[in-house]
């Protein structure tokens, strides 16, 4: 599976440029799409799943032009939108069966097996006879991924998959995805939760104001910030002073002090320890340095 | 592009979702329960429902479909707009939008889901209907109807409504707004459009005439299917437009193009079918126009008469072939060379010969124009032969009926019936002279030429060739000349003949040398089982009925046979201006509606139930034989001979005129003889009505709604327009009919008055006998009367038919008492009548008696008792001396300015008057000089009367209260009580000169006032009286003493010493003038007011009188 995006632009009728000259190549495996709200993530994804037309540029999916061959591309797709929480009055298994049938699973036996297996996989087998609209938030989310997966897609597009999920649910969700990433499936994950990407994606892009600001592996992004993340402790007065000088990434209050991580070339006036950076650090650094977005 | 599989999947799941929708479940359950009750109540054997509702086998599924259909539309609108709308939660749709399905799959799948759901609902309803149908003891089951009615009614409706809802949501993009728009559209279709534009807007098929007959099936199935296919085409188009505009990228670009193409193709198909449908109907209208115009052109063209007509008719499937051999005669005073015949424009003439020579002819619509080589001198006779074939066009029938009446839908219960005037089908034929199926020689209707009532008597002979299994029915002695060949020879010349061919069973009985035949379509005999006991006494029953009828009518039934023929349910006949019967009555033949139609007397199950109940109530012992004889007699006396007292109520100014009349009386006069006059075309109809002793009468209740009655409406009309104008331009046929009736009543009362009732009648009966089977020219009638009575009727006829000025009668001084006439107690009634109008006039007086000893005694109108001719300005005292105590007096002013035109007053106790001498007759009275009596009367019609209503009627209520058509009305019915206004109304018991009226209103808190003001010129003490009619709402006067409650009216009298409130308890008041007090009035204005404060349901303000002491 190979998705090639060439100088893709999207301008809405109101003149808003959602995407500008985006070039990306996405291959099998997990691909993370990172960026602040309004960066163009959703537009890009909706274009990829044939819900929207792009204004210019070209997208091919395994060589198929997306604006010409929707009929051939749609069978390859799996899509889970961000707010997929509203279900009509169907039982959990019926809903999945409906999705399976529309995705082209014809044989009844085969389909029944696939539906059961999928329910097992997402942990909904026990509630298969419950009405879908009566499921809890996490279950709904899982049913959402199930309906996307039941089609056995070659390209899976998932928008903000873990918002609103508790940690346990989130881990389960990640596991489902990483199982999938072993196969020849391109999984495009849009998120603004950086942790989701760092733990699963081997490739990522960072979108900013409709353009690709970074494209590469998370490791490459992290490489940039090595030796620039510091941890230190200050009191209330010190914290105020510190805020003026440095980009603060995180603050953890302790008994009478603040445990603080800052981004800087060095922190001369404080007793700071250089720590191993993660993707979140890298993201903030990248935004500050390369894109001049002040996060302070 | 679309995959049936995908559509099926979507339909399956969407249907499942819809089915789980509570709104749908509740609706479905409710409609099922309602229809179960409906079916049990209306069609099952448990209830005492009407026969016509279930008589025709397809009726039950038809009614169910119509009922369900209207309700399901509303629900469908809610569901369909819901299923297609773009979800607020867009993401839910988008999950499906990325699936490999086409836009068409999505939309069509959802539509199909709705269809599935409603299919099952319809199936359940029909199953319920079928169960009730099957368990009903006397309703036939028509399985086919359970298939074709849903296909014709429900299916196109569900499909179209769904498509329309989808389209609406797609365009409007808002479910709520779409629902409101759609429901509004349905309301407009149901309330406003209804049958307009040949039902083209009625996609719901609510008004579409879909009643099918067990004899002839659907009338015009092609049109019906066309109508339904139009909406199916439009539905497909709308669905594809919705697909086109669906907010989702198509699978392929080419799909968009394909969708647009399909939408366009079906839209164009629908539009062209609409044009086709409209043209089919419009062509008929154009034909009618053309025929009317031609009739106008040809009306005064002199032409031959047809002396004899030999018809050889071949029933060839859907068309007929005819050969007519005619003997024509020139009865004009001038010689004729250009001749014409009239034949239905649908029948093509292939050959025409004149005295054996083929002649050329021109066809102009229904006219066949040809020329005799030599002039035909007066009285010359020639032979004409016409060969023709084709299908008679029904549009040629009833040209004289106004478009509004002609097109008005015919509804009975839930059934909409197409009006049919002629049938020509493979297995059924019904042709009356109305359809011009054989050549005649007179032009038909044109509004400018009113002399259309001419009819001639022709010697007919008819030979019919038809399929061997069919039976033809026509006038005359029938002989079977071979298989499928029949010859009919009427005993004497007739004005017209008719032909029926069908799969009939004949039941016949000969009584007193008359053949009574009943022709019932095979399988439609629902009645025999009810009359098993009277088979052997039937002859006796019929003989008795016949003799009684002939005695009643004073004319013998002239024909050697009377045939009752069952006609298909759609067969319809209009009342015509110049005829007094409908085409249901043919010479020696009556067309009764299929399976008895809604004739109550033919609803035998109910008739017997009723008879049983009645017998039980009266403790009568009746065996089955008696009951059967009773039911049979009842039918004949009520429907055929109309000897039974029956009354028809009507409430508005329209409605009665289209009621079918199956009375056989035209056979005694109209089909026997007739008076022909081009100048007085109504005379024949008026004479026919006069001769017919009809015991049926109309009870016009419209005064209660509209303030005045139809007669008074017509009197007003006659003041404004002359008769000719009314006959040609009045839209409301009830008014035309009433005007004609009034003219006739007036004319013949006049004749009776001058020639003596008995003498005049017996003279007429003799005349009818002497002129059997021929027309009496008016001039010869006039001469005969002159000879016999020494009276020239022309000036009287002239005056009655052309007089526009009306008399106006003031009736006063009604007195009733008992007198001793010798040693007999007799009842004396005296009254004064003064004609203050601008023309001479007549009044007719009738009395009503209490008869019988039952709790609720039947009352009858006695025959007309006396009439009086009162010239303009004359005042007469009229005295009646009666042997029996009358209860009410009816003073009928016929054509006058009087309101009410019939003054109906109750008579009192008839106290003994020992001093009075019995007197009878009329006396001209000179106006007495009332110098001694100084009284001032102010009536509500007078200048001195005014009302004060401070609050205006709310607009909406005004709209309901005052029917838009009657917005200009002066008077209001007492059944429409206004809350905020004083309204005038009329009635016999109110005070007035020739208009007896009063103002009335709903009671209030005293803010509405009625004010009487009089100018006092001679000061002094006056007694003040108020007029109370006794019509005040609760009928306080007629209540028992013990039940009486105080009902007060509050009057204020302004006099010299101030103002007094005087409360009058109207429940204890007398009818007429009531004294309320004596007061001193000085010169100037004296005032009495009545407030609206009362315990009564209405407050009436009539008249006030000041009498100088």
Automatic annotation (TrEMBL), chain A:
ABC transporter domain: residues covered: 3-234
Keywords: ATP-binding, Nucleotide-binding, Transport
GO MF annotation: an example: ATP binding
Origin: domain of life: Bacteria
Protein's UniProt keywords contain ATP-binding: yes
Family as reported in the entry's similarity comment: Belongs to the ABC transporter superfamily.
Name of the protein in question: ABC transporter ATP-binding protein
Originating species: Agaribacillus aureus
From TrEMBL, chain B:
UniProt keywords, alphabetically: Membrane, Transmembrane, Transmembrane helix
Residues that span the membrane, as ranges: 22-46, 66-84, 117-135, 147-169, 176-193, 225-245, 257-278
Annotated ranges, domain Golvesin/Xly CBD-like: 979-1107
Pfam families reported for this sequence: Golvesin_C (PF25275)
Top-level taxon: Bacteria
Protein's name in the database: Golvesin/Xly CBD-like domain-containing protein
UniProt cross-references to InterPro entries, sorted A to Z: CBD-like_Golvesin-Xly (IPR033803), Peptidase_M4/M1_CTD_sf (IPR027268)
């Amino acid at each position: 599976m190979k998705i090639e995006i060439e100088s893709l632009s999207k301008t809405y009728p109101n003149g808003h440029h959602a995407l500008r000259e985006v070039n990306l190549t996405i291959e099998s495996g997990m691909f993370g799409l990172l960026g602040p709200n309004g960066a163009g993530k959703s537009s890009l994804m909706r274009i990829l799943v044939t819900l929207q037309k792009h204004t210019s540029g070209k997208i091919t999916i395994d060589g198929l032009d997306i604006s010409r061959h929707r009929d051939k591309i749609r069978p390859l797709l799996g899509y889970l939108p961000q707010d997929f929480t509203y279900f009509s009055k169907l039982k959990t298994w019926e809903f999945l069966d409906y999705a399976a049938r529309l995705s082209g699973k014809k044989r009844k036996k085969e389909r029944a097996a696939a539906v059961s297996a999928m329910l097992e996989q997402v942990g909904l087998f026990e509630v298969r006879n419950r009405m879908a609209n009566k499921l809890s938030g996490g279950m709904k989310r899982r049913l959402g991924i199930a309906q996307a997966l039941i089609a056995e897609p070659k390209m899976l597009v998932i928008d903000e998959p873990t918002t609103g999920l508790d940690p346990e649910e989130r881990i389960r969700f990640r596991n489902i995805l990483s199982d999938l990433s072993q196969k020849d499936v391109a999984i495009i994950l849009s998120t603004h939760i950086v942790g989701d990407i760092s733990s699963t994606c081997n490739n990522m892009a960072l979108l900013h104001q409709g353009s690709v600001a970074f494209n590469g592996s998370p490791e490459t992004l992290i490489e940039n910030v090595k030796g620039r993340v510091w941890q230190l402790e200050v009191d209330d007065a010190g914290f105020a002073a510190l805020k003026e000088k440095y980009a603060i990434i995180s603050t953890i209050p302790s008994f009478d002090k603040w445990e603080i991580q800052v981004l800087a070339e060095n922190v001369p006036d404080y007793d700071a320890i250089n720590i191993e950076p993660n993707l979140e650090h890298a993201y903030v650094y990248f935004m500050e340095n390369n894109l001049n977005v002040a996060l302070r | 592009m679309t995959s049936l599989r995908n559509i099926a999947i979507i339909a399956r799941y969407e249907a499942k979702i819809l089915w789980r929708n509570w709104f749908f479940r509740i609706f479905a359950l409710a409609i099922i329960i309602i229809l179960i009750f409906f079916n049990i109540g209306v069609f099952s054997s448990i209830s005492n429902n009407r026969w016509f509702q279930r008589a025709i086998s397809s009726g039950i599924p038809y009614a169910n479909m119509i009922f369900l259909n209207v309700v399901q539309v509303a629900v469908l609108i809610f569901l369909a707009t819901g299923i297609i709308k773009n979800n607020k939660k867009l993401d839910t749709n988008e999950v499906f939008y990325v699936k490999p399905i086409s836009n068409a799959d999505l939309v069509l799948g959802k539509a199909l889901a709705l269809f599935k759901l409603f299919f099952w609902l319809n199936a359940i309803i029909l199953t319920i209907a079928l169960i009730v149908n099957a368990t009903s003891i006397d309703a036939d089951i028509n399985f086919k109807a359970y298939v074709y009615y849903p296909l014709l009614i429900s299916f196109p409706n569900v499909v179209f409504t769904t498509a329309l809802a989808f389209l609406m949501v797609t365009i409007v993009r808002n479910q709520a707004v779409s629902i409101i728009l759609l429901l509004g559209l349905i309301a407009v279709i149901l309330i406003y459009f209804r049958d307009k534009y040949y039902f083209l807007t009625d996609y719901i098929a609510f008004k579409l005439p879909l009643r099918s007959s067990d004899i002839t099936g659907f009338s015009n199935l092609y049109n019906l299917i066309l109508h339904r296919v139009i909406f199916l085409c439009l539905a497909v188009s709308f669905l594809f437009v919705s697909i086109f505009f669906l907010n989702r990228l198509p699978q392929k670009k080419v799909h968009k193009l394909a969708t647009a193409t399909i939408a366009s193709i079906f839209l164009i198909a629908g539009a062209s079918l609409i044009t086709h449908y409209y043209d089919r109907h419009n062509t008929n209208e154009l034909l009618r126009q053309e025929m009317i115009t031609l009739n106008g052109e040809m009306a005064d063209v002199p032409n031959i008469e047809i002396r004899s007509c030999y018809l050889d008719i071949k029933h060839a499937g859907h068309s007929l072939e005819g050969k007519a051999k005619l003997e024509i005669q020139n009865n004009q005073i001038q010689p004729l060379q250009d001749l014409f015949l009239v034949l239905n424009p649908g029948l093509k003439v292939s050959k025409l010969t004149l005295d054996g020579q083929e002649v050329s002819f021109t066809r102009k619509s229904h006219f066949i124009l040809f020329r005799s080589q030599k002039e035909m001198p007066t009285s010359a006779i020639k032979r004409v032969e016409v060969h023709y074939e084709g299908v008679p066009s029904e549009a040629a029938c009833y040209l004289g009926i106004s478009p509004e009446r002609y097109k008005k839908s015919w509804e009975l219960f839930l059934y909409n019936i197409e009006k049919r005037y002629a049938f020509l089908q493979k297995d059924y034929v019904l042709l009356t002279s109305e359809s011009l199926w054989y050549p005649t020689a007179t032009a038909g209707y044109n509004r400018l030429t009113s002399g259309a009532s001419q009819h001639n008597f022709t010697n007919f002979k008819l030979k019919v060739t038809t399929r061997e299994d069919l039976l033809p029915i026509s006038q005359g002695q029938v002989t079977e000349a071979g298989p499928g060949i029949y010859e009919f020879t009427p005993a004497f010349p007739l004005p017209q003949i008719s032909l029926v061919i069908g799969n009939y069973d004949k039941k016949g009985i000969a009584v007193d040398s008359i053949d009574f035949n009943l022709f019932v379509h095979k399988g439609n005999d629902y009645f025999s089982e009810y009359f098993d006991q009277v088979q052997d006494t039937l002859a006796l029953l019929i003989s008795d009925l016949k003799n009684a009828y002939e005695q009643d009518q004073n004319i013998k039934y002239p024909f050697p046979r009377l045939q009752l023929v069952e006609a298909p349910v759609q067969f319809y006949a209009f009342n015509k201006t110049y005829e007094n019967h409908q085409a249901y009555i043919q010479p020696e033949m009556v067309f009764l509606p299929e399976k008895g139609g809604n004739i109550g007397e033919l609803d035998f199950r109910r008739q017997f139930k009723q008879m049983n109940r009645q017998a039980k109530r009266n403790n009568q012992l009746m065996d089955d034989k008696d009951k059967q004889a009773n039911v049979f007699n009842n039918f004949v006396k009520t429907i055929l001979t109309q000897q039974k007292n029956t009354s028809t109520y009507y409430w508005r100014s329209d409605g009665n005129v289209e009621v079918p009349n199956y009375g056989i009386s035209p056979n005694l006069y109209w089909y026997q003889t007739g008076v022909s006059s081009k100048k007085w075309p109504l005379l024949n109809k008026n004479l026919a009505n006069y001769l017919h002793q009809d015991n049926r009468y109309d009870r016009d209740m419209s005064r209660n709604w509209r303030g005045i009655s139809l007669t008074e409406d017509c009197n007003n009309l006659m003041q404004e327009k002359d008769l000719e104008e009314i006959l040609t331009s009045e839209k409301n046929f009830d008014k035309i009919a009433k005007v004609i009736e009034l003219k006739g009543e007036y004319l013949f009362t006049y004749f009776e008055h001058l020639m003596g009732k008995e003498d005049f009648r017996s003279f007429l009966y003799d005349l009818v006998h002497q002129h059997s089977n021929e027309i009496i020219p008016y001039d010869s009638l006039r001469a005969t009367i002159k000879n016999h009575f020494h009276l020239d009727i022309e000036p009287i006829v002239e005056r009655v038919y052309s007089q526009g000025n009306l008399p106006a009668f003031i009736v006063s001084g009604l007195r009733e008492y008992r007198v001793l006439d010798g040693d007999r107690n007799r009842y004396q009634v005296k009254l004064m009548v003064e004609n203050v109008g601008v023309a001479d006039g007549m009044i007719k007086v009738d009395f009503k008696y209490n008869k019988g000893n039952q709790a609720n005694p039947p009352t009858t109108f006695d025959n007309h008792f006396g009439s009086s001719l009162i010239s303009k300005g004359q005042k007469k005292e009229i005295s009646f001396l009666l042997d029996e105590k009358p209860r009410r007096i009816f003073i009928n002013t016929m054509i006058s300015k009087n309101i009410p035109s019939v003054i109906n007053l109750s008579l009192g106790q008839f106290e003994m008057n020992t001093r009075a001498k019995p007197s009878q007759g009329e006396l001209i009275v000179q106006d007495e000089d009332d110098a001694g009596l100084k009284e001032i009367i102010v009536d509500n019609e007078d200048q001195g009367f005014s009302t004060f209503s401070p609050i205006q009627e709310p607009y909406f209520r005004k709209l309901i209260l005052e029917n838009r058509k009657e917005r200009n009305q002066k008077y209001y019915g007492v059944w429409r009580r206004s809350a905020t206004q004083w309204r005038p109304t009329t009635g016999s018991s109110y005070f007035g000169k020739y208009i007896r009226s009063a103002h009335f209103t709903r009671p209030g808190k005293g803010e509405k006032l009625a004010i009487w003001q009089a100018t006092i010129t001679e000061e002094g003490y006056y007694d003040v009286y108020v007029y109370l009619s006794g019509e005040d709402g609760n009928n306080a006067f007629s209540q028992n003493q013990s039940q009486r409650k105080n009902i007060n009216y509050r009057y204020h009298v302004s006099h010299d010493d101030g103002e007094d409130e005087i409360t009058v308890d109207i429940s204890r008041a007398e009818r007429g003038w009531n004294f309320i007090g004596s007061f001193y009035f000085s010169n100037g204005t004296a005032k009495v007011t009545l407030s609206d404060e009362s315990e009564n349901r209405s407050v009436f303000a009539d008249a006030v009188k000041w009498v100088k002491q």
